[in-house]
Design brief:
The protein is α+β, with helices and mostly antiparallel strands. It contains 4 helices and 15 strands. The two termini are 35 Å apart.
């Protein structure tokens, strides 16, 4: 479980040029002020970037930063309602934090499926492992970088490669999907994982589901058919897939000066099933 301290609550006005978000602060002495925040998400943010919704920003006093604010969370309406009848969901939009959430789940063995898959007991873990793989149709090896490489405690066992993808898209059919737009990079990662399996390694694709209203996931064939095909090929080649759902809780607090602030607790707590739905729009 990771904790984000000292968040400010606001209202999303707009996202623009991918990396910028205009937000009206809603509480404290700065209520009504419009600030520009960094949007740490390069995707389309389909169905997530909903203007007028509550958002939470983290501040920074680093003088080298161009923007003092970072967009962390958004509260979205759910249509249709979730399985438990909820009509709202919290979403973590900061894709740069996904690897840390997965690493914490691995280190703390906080999700039972990680035990079942033999991923919770390892000797060493390396972040951002560089590999060279020979992909189908290529004559020369291609360099790639995967999020984690793990070494089991069993002597002589092959290392395990993990690639993490943050998933936030919940379509109007109530299902979760990845990616939220065409992603040739994600397609290449799947091909690299399949090639490593062929070379004798174990490979796992991990969906970090950062939307607490998503109950199951699937490749987004309606947005990126090539990714859905690559996903099927990778699974057939032996690449394992696990989707880990995030629990997000918010607590209101006060600073020493009485400024309303928020604390968010985020952690991957459960495994989500894959589904076969095909979104029709």
């Amino acid at each position: 479980m990771r904790v984000l301290e000292g968040l400010y609550r606001g209202r999303l006005i707009r996202r623009y040029k991918r990396f910028f978000a205009e937000v009206e602060l809603l509480e404290g002495e700065r209520a009504g002020e419009v600030v520009t925040a960094h949007c740490p998400n390069t995707g389309s943010m389909r169905a997530v970037c909903v203007e007028g919704c509550e958002v939470w920003l983290s501040p920074s006093d680093n003088p080298k930063r161009k923007l003092a604010w970072t967009w962390e969370l958004i509260r979205l309406p759910l249509g249709p309602p979730g399985a438990d009848g909820r009509r709202e969901a919290l979403v973590a939009v900061h894709t740069g934090r996904a690897n840390a959430h997965v690493e914490a789940a691995l280190q703390q063995a906080s999700v039972s499926v990680l035990h079942d898959m033999g991923l919770a007991d390892f000797a060493r873990l390396k972040r951002e492992s560089r590999v060279e793989v020979l992909l189908p149709g290529n004559d020369t090896p291609e360099r790639s970088r995967l999020d984690f490489q793990m070494w089991p405690k069993e002597e002589g066992a092959a290392s395990i490669y993990l690639e993490v993808k943050q998933l936030t898209l919940r379509e109007s059919d109530g299902h979760g999907y990845f990616p939220d737009s065409v992603s040739t990079r994600a397609q290449r990662h799947l091909a690299s994982l399949a090639a490593l399996v062929a070379a004798g390694h174990r490979c796992v694709l991990v969906f970090c589901v950062a939307h607490d209203g998503i109950e199951d996931v699937a490749p987004a064939a309606h947005l990126d058919p090539a990714y859905a095909q690559a996903f099927a090929r990778a699974q057939a080649a032996g690449v394992e897939v696990v989707a880990l759902g995030m629990q997000i809780t918010l607590e209101e607090s006060l600073s020493d000066a009485g400024q309303p602030l928020w604390r968010a607790r985020l952690g991957l707590t459960r495994a989500l099933p894959l589904h076969d739905a095909r979104f029709a729009g």
